[in-house]
Amino acid sequence: MNITAIIENGVINGVKNLYGEEVSPKQVTMNVTRKEFEGDYTVVTFPFTKIAKKKPDEIAQELGHFLVENITEINNFNVVKGFLNLSISDDFWKKFLLEITDNQDFGRQPANGRKVMIEYCSPNTNKPIHLGHVRNILLGWSCSQLYEAAGYEVVKVQVINDRGIAICKSMLAWQKFGNDATPESTGIKSDHFVGDYYVMFEKKFQKEYKAWQGSEEGMEIFHTKGKENQPEAGFFKIFKNTYFNEHSTLGKEAREMLMKWEANDPETMALWQKMNNWVYGGFEVTFNKLNIQFDKYYYESDTYLLGKDAVEEGLTKEVFYKKEDGSVWADLTDAKLDHKVVMRSDGTSVYITQDIGTAQSRYKDYGCEKMVYVVADEQNYHFQVLFEILKRLKEPYSDGLFHLSYGMVDLPSGKMKGREGTVVDADNLIEEVIGEAKAASSERGETAELPQAEQDEIIQKIGMAALKYHIIKVHPKRRMVFDPKESVDLQGQTGPHIQYAYVRVNSVIRKAHSIGLQRETWKSLVANYPNMQPIEKSLIGQLYRFPETILEAAEDFDPSTIAHFCYDLAKNFHKFFSELSILKAETEEARAFRLELCQSTANVLKTGMGLLGIEMPERM
RNA sequence: GGCCCCAUAGUUCAAGGGAUAGAAUAGUGGUUUCCUAAACCAUAGAUCCAAGUUCGAGUCUUGGUGGGGCUACCA
Question: How many domains does chain A have?
């Protein structure tokens, strides 16, 4: 049984024994003892004052005696201002240490037979991956790792928005202005190549629009449709969409292309396929650099017609209603949401209809009881509506729906804006952090004698750790400020700081072997180590909390908990490392114990960082 | 207008209603004959405002103030 559960039971029994009243586990408040006090766990006795009709200090004394007498794992206590600090016996900790040193899976739960689907990333095909996607990807990936560690089977999916007017814009620009250029012929990464044509379209369109604004037609429309006193610039800003749909030559061409696409025109389809493949090829390169995978891709071109059946079904079940013009709506006002259209009067579906259909078809594909959508918080309302509709349709998985809503990423200069060119591109960013790691590494020269390929791999791991950790350490819900300068920091609360703890362990173990020490020999001495130091106890205590930390993080969909756990552990390890000698310890037993402690710390750090998608180098 | 989210050192982040609000970074000062100084040690610095609930509030409630988001028969 878990030590916290043991203490909790002990306290409940103690209160019953001493004061004759039954308390619930909820009433037992327990924390890890603060490091300035002696002890491992602290019980707060204030909640029992009414029951015991005594002062907190008195209760703490009585309870402390009771626990020490009745629970073998507790061998000491002290009381400070009503806080009962309990000390766990060295034997308990040593036994625990010996249990985990050979267990590579420590912290992971056995398979529980349950299935969860996580959708994340889901980029647009006409824009390369940027910083916002990186946060999404890291959250999605680490949540999937967390759920696997918690015993679930995880299906990782993403939706590719591969159709619609936006895609036609880049196709059209390439067709008109591309002169048969290719990523190969230009040497541009293929997703960026396509993205460039999307930007080109927007530029050409702006130019066309600008010219039109000064034309007779443009001025006439401004004068007839513009409101009184409305400035010209303001009017034309709002009018842009209408211009695209009703007046623009380029807009007309793009819409014609979309119609050809919908009609399966062979030439259009071939172009569409060619350009999409360029995009996917480029994305794949970025995904590989980020070291993430997906089990299944859903393409909107396959799914955009889904959901029409659901509309019928909803009407039959009276979840939806039909207006006179034929459009179909859901009335969600009693759930404090608004009316929501699910089918237009012309019979075509809207975005949410597609989402309903996709959810249904995914459940058919995989039968997951939980479905998680990793999507930025600007879509909170959309997901509230979607989940409410699915619930009303009585979908079997509707209780397991979760929107992992995360805050957007800002720059020190403010919001990222595509139009103003302030978007941070993922490929550039990765290149930058790796460059920084390379510079720092060559300055240290610690790995200089290794083959170049190995050095490169190490640098790669360090750079990616800096970048990933910097993002994942922030609570998902929180809007975060991303300072590129800080993201390449390699010191302090960073990924490399944690990697360095792991590297130091490796180094010590290597040295131990090189002076002829054998694991089997030292392991047998651990149990005889007599006096554990406070820093050693606190390290073991941290290791002990690893499994529960994983479970909490999974339940809350919060990888930042793991990030903080790993940092605290690494920091404490560095302190331990500088305070105490390992290979030159006072006794053989002390050396043995510390080597085992090092090894376990390294194992936990590796597993923990692995959950965040961060790899550990053996040297650095 | 309505609904939702956020507010903590100069800055970037922590803190399941519990002790003296932790880190990192930037600043200042120190540590290497010994296991990798990407480390360690010391120093200084913060809960937006006002009420309320509680033995106890950064955390819960109400009201302000400031910031962000959503509120399409767009996707």
Answer: 2
ipTM: 0.96
Q: What is the pLDDT of residue A374?
A: 97
Spatial neighbors of A325 by CB under 8 A, at least 6 apart, are: A345
Least confident of A22-26, A70-74, A380-384, A603-607: A22-26
A564 touches strand B (CB under 7 A): yes
Identify the pLDDT of residue A62.
96
Measured between its terminal Cα atoms, the distance across chain A in Å is 39
What predicted TM-score, i.e. pTM, was given to this entire model? 0.95
Strand partners, A44: A29, A83
Give chain B positions with protein CB within 7 A. 3-7, 11-20, 23-26, 34-41, 55-56, 68-75
Which domain does A22 fall in, by range? 3-88
Question: Using one digit for the tens of pLDDT, what is the confidence trace for A405-445?
Answer: 999 999 988 888 877 778 899 999 999 999 999 999 999 99
Q: Is residue A347 part of a domain?
A: no
Residues 380-409, chain A, CB closer than 7 Å to nucleic strand B: 380-382, 407-408
Which DSSP letter does residue A127 get?
A: S
A604 assigned to some structural domain: yes
- Please list the helix, strand and coil fractions of chain A in percent, rounded to the nearest 5, in that order: 60, 10, 30
Nearest residue to A154 via CA among A439, A364, A370, A476 = A370
Residue A76 CA to residue A89 CA, distance in Å, equals 8
Q: Look up residue A205 and give its amino acid.
A: F
A28, A61, A88: which is the final residue of a domain? Answer: A88
Chain-centre distance for alpha carbon A405: 10
User: Contact at 8 Å (CB) between A89 and A72?
Assistant: yes
